[in-house]
């Protein structure tokens, strides 16, 4: 999950900003939308933490166990809410992918010391078929999300904004930003899975 230092920092910043926006969006919503925004914030911040270049902060071996437990709980939560369908099925796949990457990194253990975690990830391997399934899912998700984003942006560009382009409800009320954040996290997840 950690490539060269610059790409790692960029991925970390992108995921952290996305997670921050999802928290902002959670403040301005209620019910199902709030749960979705919180789950996306957790995913964004978790991905940001996993993307920090290992040359800067080498994660301790037990850190991957913490990620596994945290995202395992998120997977169970998403499984519970997936009975309703909708975006919870995507959260189920996303948290499962995070658990998978954490387990692979935990298995690499000692290989991650003293170098980039991507080298440890490559040494640990992972299950090629499972990695391929996750990569195929995220490739399809990114393409579909990107195609859906264009009409949303075009439809909302003309109305609802006040001076400066900020809608009356604040940044959390911009309908085109939620799909853009999902697209961003899908691209980041795809990039992280590529290092397996």
Describe the protein in words:
By secondary structure, the chain is an all-alpha fold. The chain has one domain. Helix 1 runs antiparallel to helix 2. The longest helix has 29 residues. The protein is globular and about 40 Å long. The termini are close together. 37% of the residues are buried.
- Which consecutive residue ranges, at least 5 long each, have pLDDT under 50? 110-122, 152-164
Task: Tell me the Rg in angstroms.
Answer: 17 Å
Principal-axes shape call: globular
Counted by DSSP, the helix tally is 7
Task: Kindly report how far apart the N and C termini lie.
Answer: 7 Å
Number of domains: 1
Mean pLDDT: 79
Along the chain, the helix and strand elements come as HHHHHHH
- Strand-residue proportion: under 5%
Number of strands: 0
Residues in helix, %: over 70%
Structural class: mainly alpha
Largest sheet: none
């Amino acid at each position: 999950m950690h490539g060269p230092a610059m790409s790692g920092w960029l991925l970390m910043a992108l995921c952290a900003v996305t997670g921050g926006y999802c928290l902002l969006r959670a403040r301005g919503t209620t019910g199902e939308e709030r749960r979705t925004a919180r789950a996306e914030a957790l995913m964004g911040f978790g991905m940001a933490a996993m993307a920090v270049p290992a040359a800067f902060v080498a994660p301790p071996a037990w850190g991957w166990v913490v990620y596994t437990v945290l995202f395992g709980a998120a997977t169970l939560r998403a499984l519970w809410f997936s009975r309703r369908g909708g975006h919870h099925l995507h959260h189920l796949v996303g948290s499962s992918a995070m658990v998978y990457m954490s387990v692979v990194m935990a298995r690499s253990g000692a290989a991650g010391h003293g170098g980039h975690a991507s080298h440890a990830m490559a040494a640990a391997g992972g299950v090629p078929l499972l990695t391929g399934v996750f990569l195929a899912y995220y490739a399809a998700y990114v393409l579909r999300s990107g195609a859906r984003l264009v009409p949303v942006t075009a439809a909302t560009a003309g109305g609802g904004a006040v001076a400066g382009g900020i809608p009356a409800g604040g940044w959390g009320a911009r309908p085109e930003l939620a799909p853009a954040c999902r697209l961003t996290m899908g691209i980041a997840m795809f990039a992280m899975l590529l290092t397996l």
